Amino acid sequence: MSVSSLDIFHTFVAVHIATGATGLVTFWVPVLAGKGNERHKYWGRIFTAMMVVTGTVAMGMATMTLLYPMETHPHLVEHEVFSDPENVRVVFGWMMLYLAILTVNLAWYGWMCVTNKRLHHQLNRGRLNLFLQVLLSAAAANCIWQGMKLGQPLVMGMSAVGFATVATNLWFIFHPRPGPVYWLKEHIKAHVGAGISVYTAFFAFGAVRLMPELALTPVLWAIPLVTGISLILYHQRSVSRKTPPRARSGTRVAAE
Fold it and tell me: Which residues of 134-162 are buried (b: 16+ CB within 10 A; e: fewer)?
């Protein structure tokens, strides 16, 4: 019995939905639960694992789409816009690959921040963490290129999130003496960002089953993005308010 590209793709989709849905639900437990308690840590570990698996599987889905655009999306064969295989490759291949890398990048980086905290800051410069920054930069640059070829500003515009992520990640990773609570703020940024990237993908790419043209609707991409930025700013400011001014501006890393 032969296995078709569509069968493999559907297997990826099934795993992606299962782990992604679990991640979307568990995302809110650490966000709403008391910070630093055991429940927060337990659900945070589950969320991180789900995000890494979901993003990795999405990379497989994106690769399948790039190789077999119409075979993996037969429902788009007669669509006005996406009957063109190149449009399918760009939006459901390259864009999904970019979001998948963004998700894994943020999930892993956020986990490293909370694992190493301030005392072991130098461990954030591990090979995998640095490789993910290079990979995301390449994926974001490719989005600009693919968006230019397609004439689609949304594809180009979304790359800004990736570049901003890499810039802020590297700023913290290579900061010689980050303040006492910088790691916590970066942890918040990364894990909220990872959750929002998955919500964005579910909003935008999930809509393709009902109305494919919605995948290019800016509102579907803007709602999760604005929500995520608001959550990040709220929790980061909450950390700042609870931190004494002297400790907030501390510069010496105890382990260095």
Answer: ebbbebbebbbebbeebebebbbebbebb
pTM: 0.88
Domain assignments of the chain as residue spans, ordered by start? 5-248
d(CA 5, CA 133): 31
Q: How far apart are CA 85 and CA 77, in angstroms?
A: 9
- CA-nearest of 52, 47, 56 to 23 is 47
Of 45, 65, 63, nearest to 53 by C-alpha is 45
161-169: list long-range contacts, CB under 8 Å, 24+ apart. Answer: 161/102, 161/225, 162/98, 162/101, 162/102, 162/136, 162/137, 163/137, 165/102, 165/105, 165/106, 165/136, 165/193, 166/105, 166/133, 166/136, 166/137, 166/140, 169/105, 169/109, 169/133
Query: What is the C-alpha radius of gyration for the chain, rounded to an integer number of angstroms?
Result: 19
Dig out the tokens for 30 from the structure.
């650490």
User: How many other C-beta atoms lie within 10 A of the C-beta of residue 37?
Assistant: 10
Dump pLDDT digits (tens) for 81-117. 788 899 899 988 999 999 999 999 999 999 999 999 8
* pLDDT tens per residue across span 148-192: 998 888 889 999 999 999 999 999 999 988 888 899 999 999 999
